[in-house]
Amino acid sequence: MPISALGLDVGKKRIGVAGCDGTGLIAFGITTIERKSFQADLAALQQLVNDRQVDTLVVGLPYSMDGTLGAQARQIQKFATAIAKALQLPLEYVDERLTSFQAEQLLQAEGIAPSQQKGLVDRKAASLILQQWLDERRSQNARSNSTQI
Length: 149
Fold this sequence. Notes:
By secondary structure, the protein is an alpha/beta fold. The chain has four helices and five strands; from the N terminus they run βββαβαβαα. Strands 3-2-1-4-5 form a five-stranded mixed sheet, sandwiched between helices. The chain is globular, with a radius of gyration of 15 Å. The two termini are 20 Å apart.
């Protein structure tokens, strides 16, 4: 069954956006949205949802290192819930602890200075968030299929 999900790394200044191939195997960065207002953010996401025929939103949730939800995570939940409702899409969350750090490490390994490429870091983080969700989904499907045999 084909899948078209958008992965979002929501920050105060930017939203990193990732998509996946139709098979749901590989996530990749698409764009970075410079945040202006809720309506502008929504319009940019609506365009992506329409263009890519998206069926699910996957949003990274920044849990604290002790596993609790802090103020930033609650703000992201509020934003994500409003966006998902406006777009009429199901919403799923992924624990995004350390994804921005991982994204920066990956860029450094490619010889790219993360401090000069904030938007690229956000896109890479979004792709890590979406890839984690795709991998978990595939793993759950494999487990459910193996119990049916």
